[in-house]
Amino acid sequence: MLVDPFARPITYLRVSVTDRCDFRCTYCMPEQMRFAPRPELLTPAEIERAAAAFIRRGVRKLRLTGGEPLARRGVLDLVRALSRHLGRGLDELTLTTNGSRLAVHAAALAAAGVRRINVSLDTLDPARFAAITRRGDLSQVLDGIAAARAAGLRVKINAVALRGAEEDGIEPLMRWCAAEGHDLTLIETMPLGEVGEDRTDRYLPLSTVKARLAERFALEPLPDRTGGPARYMLVRELGLRLGFITPLTVNFCDGCNRVRLTATGQLVPCLGHETGTDLRTVLRATSDDRALDAAIGAAIAAKPKGHEFRIGRGLAPAVARHMSATGG
Ligand code: SAM
Ligand code: SF4
To answer: Residue 46 in contact with residue 94, Cβ under 8 Å?
Structure first.
């Protein structure tokens, strides 16, 4: 089993299957993003082998992310291969997507054993959506979400909270999620990677959002903990379960159960630190899984206690690596 120096069992692996993306969300990456050369990306077979090593050591939940996971060629074969572990050590295989290709892939994902997915959607306003994503088409994403539901997938919507016009869009998003039966989680923007603008201007603390919502709705804290960083409230009038992920305003690292495998095979034990262990070299050097196990064990033994994110004018990102490379 994998237990870190702070007695936290590691049971959750997130894998960035590609750092590439068809969107360029303003808080995630710059317009002229430079991606890793393709030979540097782990192959699907390497991802599968690494994932199997984690599952042998007690990882029970696997999330494919990116970049845009559904933009990676062969990702469905990878999902099918990984789904063979379901019920044999793995409890859940899931995915976080921007939804742009979900209409095409939803049925195949469901057939491969995926039951729930997270879709990132920051606003229901088509113009603001296009501005935030720089290239996204809201109607495609909404079609994708509808296809996911039709295929029997449960959908959770993730929205990054942004100061500015988007603030007014939070309530419509809440009402829509409630009407459609999706859970909604709001996320504070994190200082990961240069994005070509100062994040300070767009950073919206969720303490502010919560205080404003409390003026209009009865917010009831829920005891639900899904093993992740979100804290949940019931918005009584809407019957909506609303999650808050607050890396900036309320630290949640005490209960951390996760590590991340980057698109290029770095095992990153904490999102808020530059440190990582190069699993790609081990994967490519030998087919002996003992070396892989040893590298994974050493990385977990070096997992930091937590992050110390700060956003402020003139402050550099806490970590140079973008969320798309690490796997958000
Ligand atoms: N492309 C997929 C998507 O957007 O869902 C998966 C990868 S994306 C990096 C995963 C999540 O990270 C998205 O919900 C996105 O909004 C979030 N994200 C990206 N950059 C972020 C940042 N700097 N701070 C907080 N969340 C961020
Ligand atoms: Fe792409 Fe997701 Fe980053 Fe947006 S948040 S640019 S969709 S990886």
So the answer is: no
